[in-house]
Amino acid sequence: MSRFRMYPSPAQQAALLELCRDARYLWNLALEQWAMWTRDKGATPGFAEQCRQLTEARAAFEWLRAGSQTVQQQALRDFDQAVKNFHAGTHRRPTWRKAGRHEGFRIDGSQAARVEKLSRKWARVLVPKVGWVRFRLSRAIPDAKSYRVTCDRMGRWYLAFAAIPEPIPAPGTGELVGVDRGVTVSAALSTGELLSCPGLSDREQARLKQLQRRLARCRRGSKRRGRVQVAIAKLYARAGDRRKDWVEKTSTDLARRFDVIRVEDLRVAPLTRRPKPKPDPERPGRYLPNRRRAKAGLNRGILANGWGLLVQRLEHKAPGRVEKVNPAYTSQTCSVCGHCAPGSRENQAVFWCVACGHRANADVNAAVNIAAGRAVSARRETPPRVSSKREPQLAASG
Ligand SMILES: [Zn+2]
């Protein structure tokens, strides 16, 4: 994606929001259709059938016909892709699109090619039903077949072209690095470097908490509530901007410095899934604690660190040079002697080998194992109980 900041006029903003509303409406309609499926009903209508239904609906409803057909069709196509991603296991279940939170639509085909450069710093794009909208030329316009217009919660408009960036050439030194993605630090390299993704400062976090408390006291639909919501959105946007910036810089740096980058093949989706409710055997209808709150805290940490995004960007920037390694036992195996024992952890931060006495930062030790590709050791002992924090795959299967 290469993203540009867009500066629509107030009238254009209103028109863009209409398109966003159409896209959101169709997405939610498709989601409803999909979610209503039961075993005794036939197949859920696919993309082609939904497009046919859309044509019928456009003929019947004036307000739908007033919107852009491309925008409406692309919303259905996006949903189709989301369902495919869900079934492939790479993404979570598609969710409802909410006003003010998920504002955006996609344009593709010949309509996406209408982009003009105005000056050294400005260009404009012809958005159907809206007209020419100016955007800031912060980089070269890529050769892309589609673009997406989005509005974040702070009301900033963006234009993003779906283009995979030019791969960064390998340094050719034959050097290899292992990256362990931890919760305490964002990433540890086998070279011993510890990288942490910047989030909000302590002061900003305190402010966020204060605002959230204030929001809880606001009446729904009040003006004050709206103001507090915007202030909260600003803080979230700031954290998101910092995270994305860190991911871009880190992925570029790794792609430039190393020929091969090994990462743990950790599926973010299963790890961040909500824990199953545990029914109480003694009192039917009641539930035992399932540590959902604890897991929610961990999930926040994972998502805040932008794991998935980092690997995705690495794969874009260094295609064919990113290797995924099964991370089982990497946190318990000694990177010097290869002995694997769950007791080799002094605590979350320090690794201390029970066999040879090697002592290192736990995340760096894991990163060295990942670099060696020594994921599953042949000499491993059966671990009696594994921390669910470190070994999600094992916890899930065992
Ligand atoms: Zn050892």
Automatic annotation (TrEMBL):
Q: Where is the Cas12f1-like TNB domain?
A: 307-370
Record region (Disordered): 271-292, 375-398
What GO biological process terms does the UniProt entry carry, in alphabetical order? Answer: DNA recombination; transposition
- Residues forming the Probable transposase IS891/IS1136/IS1341 domain are 165-272
Note whether Cytoplasm occurs among the keywords: no
| Stated family | In the C-terminal section; belongs to the transposase 35 family.
User: Which keywords label this protein?
Assistant: DNA recombination, DNA-binding, Metal-binding, Transposition, Zinc
Name the Pfam families for this protein. Cas12f1-like_TNB, HTH_OrfB_IS605, OrfB_IS605
Name the species this protein comes from. Answer: Kribbella caucasensis
Ranges where the Transposase putative helix-turn-helix domain occurs: 3-35
Q: Where is the composition biased (Basic and acidic residues)?
A: 378-392
Protein name per UniProt: Transposase
Q: Name one GO molecular function term.
A: metal ion binding
Q: Which residues are listed as membrane-spanning?
A: none
Q: What is the lineage of its organism?
A: Bacteria, Bacillati, Actinomycetota, Actinomycetes, Propionibacteriales
